[in-house]
Design brief:
Blueprint lengths: L7 H10 L13 H11 L4 H14 L3 H6 L2 H8 L6 H17 L7 H5 L6 H12 L8 H11 L8 H14 L5 H14 L19 H4 L16 E12 L2 E6 L10 E2 L2 E3 L4 H10 L4 E13 L3 E12 L7 E3 L1 H7 L7 H8 L3
The structure holds iron/sulfur cluster.
The site of iron/sulfur cluster (SF4) has 14 residues, from α9 and α12.
Length: about 350
Amino acid sequence: MSGVSPAIVPALLDWYDQGHRDLPWRAQPTPYRVWVSEIMLQQTRVEAVRGYFDRWMQALPDIRALAAADEATYMKLWEGLGYYSRVRNLHRAAAEVCENYGGELPADYARLLALPGVGEYTAGAVASIAFGIPVPAVDGNVLRVAARLDNDYTPITDAGYKKRTRERFAALMPADRPGDLNQALMELGATVCLPNGAPLCGNCPVQHLCLAYHRGNASTLPVRAAKKARRIENRTVLLVRCGAMVGIRRRPARGLLAGLWELPSLDGHLSPDETRTALTAQGWQVQKLLSLRPAKHIFTHVEWHMNGYYIELADQPAGMTFVTPAGLRAEYALPSAFRAFLSVIEEET
Ligand code: SF4
């Protein structure tokens, strides 16, 4: 029994060699493919990313193509993945790579880390998997595995714990296969050492080295610091029609979903009469107003609890963009928060 120690390295590499998930980015692990996949996988499940990754690579097969792409193109490819700052940073980083590194990601951990949107985990993943540089890639999966191997009840959300864990894995990196060790750890966390008190210890290649398993604590680890409760925001979302067209607008350049297209909305949960009054006061000529099914959307720190109305207007008001339902679907990236209300016009597209 030894916890996180050199003994886990051959056990994990042997297990990884015996078979692992067939993921599209593992075929041809070029720096660009590893980078894009790791950014997509932040906060998003592997199964959800597969289709996005393939579509992205077909449309933007290399860094130069990404750097040259316009906003509508890369936002559309990202539509539904959420956390849109990730795709904006990908684009900014691609431009920097073209300007400073001739269109090739640098084979250098510190330079990767300096790119927009690239943190220690992503820099470690790209450096080790694509370039064979012996640096660790420690994400939530790996922190969970480490806490269980060590039977350590320090909250894994603690910055000091994360730093110590990264240093300990850095000392274990094999010079010849750092990328495989990192991928083996990711694979273990994703397929065996599962979260939410449900590790599959019977399938684990490092069970004999795991202190939590031997002490019967595997399902009670890891510990996390208590999260702050999310703020609840009540909103009244408007699916605005004018003839065959649908009204959308840009969100403010700062804050939640910054700069993205959206369905217009009003603060609070307004009744039909209050909504009609508010819209009339801003000069809208409402011809029809129907209630839609309420919906909820959860962001990291905020929850939107949304009422919705289908509104028909006589004229297109200023400050909004009107598009056909088919055009909306094909060319505009709308955050998934609004998806529930768009189902009303899905059949028209
Ligand atoms: Fe995780 Fe269980 Fe393996 Fe320990 S034995 S590393 S708890 S799966």
